[in-house]
């Protein structure tokens, strides 16, 4: 972050205590780098026991090892509702975004604007990469919501990583640069221009389909042939993750040491792995587009400025909690708002944040909700079907305990989950 301070005697005499305090707060505020991976569950990352084939990702691994790995982080089963919940701090049934391609209302106050409304406009804000919360309405982009700068993919995916529509604050063009590289360069260039603390929402579209071959220098999967249906897609999927990791390394290397020391990094997955590349113990119908753990229990790593702990934390966290947490990191005095609870305190100490976590989905086929207390998880479908799992004994949801008579503890747990579910949704 560039800093320019020019003081004259007259300027100094006119500065009030309040202004001095504002300057100090701005100078000490951390930069915030939020990195979102697309369709990448725990089975595709080191640090988790799920999955046998792992990519070579030294930069993402470093973020995990240097900070906190939150192992009980819940999102939504698809892209749009996860992002909408993060940026509003609200559950999908409140915003109307419960599935991919659904549109967020222009009346919503988004995280970036909320931060600047409560910190005297102290942060520069940008969204680079995948947006995907405005449906197909290109007139509603991040600028509409008060975000300073946007450039990336407006909708959910691209047909070709090397030939794709680039949106720049509502203007469309075609880019022939590999998406992960393009997003990294855009992020780096924007950051270098800032003269105050910044909040970068960097949403890669990798490793979302289509399966493809990234530039050779960015991956270790060897000389891959052009992908065709029927070929094992796993090496292509891993190559895409490795290319994203390579670009994350490029971005971090572009920061000065001072900038890096003052930057907090959040890395996360938005929803479960694509079924075609899902690995055991997850079943292919229990990952992306499902409310099972493989679809919503995603990677979340936090490291850098202000993170004093290392290792794993099993607190219950939901994607809505990103709103209050990032706002508090930015200096807003906030613990809870809407459906969002800040977990910033977990960067330095162990404590309990939530008693329950919630997720949901609604598309043309399914309407369902799920809630968990960390031990028991209840899934309720609108058609009346219910499932319940003991996540301690059965973490991959193979045994629906509602198929047998519940014992006293199970019955009381189900009643408590139903009560909380009713409270949340009403």
TrEMBL record:
Higher taxonomy: Bacteria, Pseudomonadati, Bacteroidota, Flavobacteriia, Flavobacteriales
GO MF term set: arylsulfatase activity; metal ion binding
Source organism of the structure: Pseudalgibacter alginicilyticus
Keywords attached to this entry: Calcium, Hydrolase, Metal-binding
Superkingdom of this protein's organism: Bacteria
Similarity annotation: Belongs to the sulfatase family.
Keyword Calcium among UniProt keywords: yes
Keyword Glycoprotein part of the UniProt annotation: no
Pfam families reported for this sequence: Sulfatase (PF00884)
Sulfatase N-terminal domain sequence ranges: 30-332
PANTHER family assigned: ARYLSULFATASE FAMILY MEMBER, ENDO-4-O-SULFATASE
The protein, known as: Sulfatase
């Amino acid at each position: 972050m560039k800093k320019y301070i020019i003081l004259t005697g007259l300027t100094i005499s006119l500065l009030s205590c309040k202004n001095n305090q504002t300057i100090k707060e701005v100078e000490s505020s951390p930069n915030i780098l939020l990195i979102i991976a697309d369709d990448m569950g725990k089975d595709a990352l080191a640090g988790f026991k799920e999955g046998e084939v792992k990519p070579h990702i030294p930069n993402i691994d470093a973020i995990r090892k240097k900070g906190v790995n939150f192992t009980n982080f819940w999102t939504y089963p698809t892209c749009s509702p996860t992002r909408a919940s993060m940026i509003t701090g609200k559950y999908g049934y409140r915003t109307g975004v419960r599935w991919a391609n659904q549109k967020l209302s222009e009346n919503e106050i988004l995280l970036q604007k909320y931060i600047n409304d409560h910190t005297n406009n102290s942060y520069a804000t940008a969204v680079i990469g995948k947006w995907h919360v405005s449906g197909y309405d290109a007139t509603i982009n991040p600028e509409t919501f008060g975000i300073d700068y946007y450039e990336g993919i407006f909708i959910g995916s691209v047909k070709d990583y090397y030939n794709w529509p680039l949106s720049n604050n509502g203007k469309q063009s075609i880019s022939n640069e590999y998406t992960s590289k393009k997003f990294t360069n855009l992020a780096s260039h924007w950051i270098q221009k800032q003269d105050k603390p910044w909040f970068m929402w960097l949403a890669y579209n990798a490793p979302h389909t289509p399966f493809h071959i990234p530039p050779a220098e960015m991956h270790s999967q060897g000389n891959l042939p052009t992908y065709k249906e029927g070929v094992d897609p796993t090496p292509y999927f891993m190559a895409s993750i490795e290319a994203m990791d390579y670009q994350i390394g490029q971005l971090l290397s572009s920061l000065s040491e001072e900038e890096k020391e003052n930057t907090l990094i959040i890395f996360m997955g938005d929803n479960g792995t694509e079924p075609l590349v899902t690995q055991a113990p997850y079943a292919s119908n229990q990952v992306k587009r499902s409310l099972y753990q493989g679809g919503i229990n995603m990677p979340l790593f936090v490291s850098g400025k202000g993170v004093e702990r290392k290792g794993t934390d099993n607190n219950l966290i939901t994607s809505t909690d990103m709103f209050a947490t990032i706002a508090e990191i930015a200096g807003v005095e906030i613990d809870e708002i809407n459906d969002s609870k800040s977990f910033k305190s977990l960067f330095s100490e162990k404590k309990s944040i939530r008693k329950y976590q919630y997720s949901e989905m609604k598309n043309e086929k399914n309407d369902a909700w799920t809630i968990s207390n960390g031990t028991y998880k209840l899934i309720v479908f609108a058609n009346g079907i219910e499932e319940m799992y003991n996540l301690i004994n059965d973490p991959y949801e193979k045994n629906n305990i509602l198929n047998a008579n519940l014992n006293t503890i199970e019955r009381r747990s189900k009643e408590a989950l139903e009560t909380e579910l009713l409270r949340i949704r009403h």
